[in-house]
Design goal:
Layout lengths: L6 E4 L5 H11 L5 E5 H16 L5 E7 L3 H11 L8 E5 L4 H10 L5 E5 L7 H6 L8 H14 L4 E3 L5 H7 L5 E4 L18 H6 L4 E4 L1 H4 L4 H12 L1
Helix pairs in contact: 1-2, 3-4
This protein binds cytidine-5'-monophosphate.
């Protein structure tokens, strides 16, 4: 059995024509594209559909966080996009009831995952925001991953460094979507906690979110193929 292509390219641009051009170049070379706030707030449903129609499945990374009813209604609206995203997400800190409400409106092939603790936050940031002082970011991320699983969601976004803990605590089919990926030959940019594609897959990553290492390459499709080769 051939494994599905684990590369999800982050289309981090507010530029519609660039997003469309990149998507066309990457068709057949990557498994998924990630559309986030930067693009969606600029171009809305029409921009989303202009990219999605090209044929690469979309991870719609809007990180919803509000009361359960509002999030459920928001997800319902997002699932009317055509073609619907293959993955979308909420913040796990929205709580168990919010995640369950979101899960209950998800249908079809769409998977719902949660963001645990943003990797931009330090221990001190969490404590200043009122999180329990006896838990560090990785422990808090694991606690939220367990809550996400309890709510019946399909998985989490997590750092490569959190994979071991999550894989040790939750069933293998719980999806892990992992940013902070850098081929050994590419600069880390502003990412601090990075892993190579091969080491992230070995640690149990299901989907590798890769932005600049592919979008910033002279030949993005070739960069994606090189990364796939590095996994063999
Ligand atoms: O260019 P780069 O590969 O660093 O892009 C990574 C993508 O993953 C960006 O869209 C970034 O916002 C996202 N991301 C991340 N770290 C997280 C969550 C999302 O880098 N913890």
């Amino acid at each position: 059995m051939t494994r599905p292509n684990p590369i999800c390219v982050a289309l981090d641009t507010p530029d519609l024509s660039r997003a469309v051009a990149l998507s066309k170049q990457l068709l057949g070379h990557v498994g998924m594209l990630k559309i986030g706030m930067e693009f969606f707030y600029a171009h809305g449903a029409a921009g989303y559909e202009a990219v999605a129609i090209i044929g690469i499945p979309i991870f719609l990374d809007l990180k919803l966080h509000d009361i359960p009813n509002t999030v459920a209604q928001g997800i319902t609206s997002l699932l009317k996009l055509a073609p619907a995203p293959i993955i979308t997400n909420v913040h796990a800190t929205g709580g168990l009831d919010m995640m369950k409400a979101a899960r209950d409106v998800v249908k079809g092939n769409t998977k719902l995952i949660a963001v645990t603790i943003l990797t931009s936050l330090s221990n001190e940031d969490l404590w200043a925001a009122g999180f329990a002082g006896d838990k560090k970011t990785d422990e808090q991320a694991l606690a939220l991953a367990k809550l996400t699983h309890e709510a019946g969601l399909d998985g989490v976004v997590c750092s490569p460094l959190d994979l071991a803990k999550i894989r040790g605590a939750l069933p293998r089919k719980f999806l892990t979507v992992v940013p902070g990926i850098r081929p050994a030959t590419v600069a880390a940019h502003d990412q601090k906690r990075v892993a190579t594609p091969k080491s992230a897959i070995a640690a149990g990553a299901d989907i590798l979110v890769i932005g600049r290492a592919i979008t910033g390459a002279d030949e993005p499709a070739q960069a994606a193929q090189d990364i796939l080769q590095s996994l063999v």
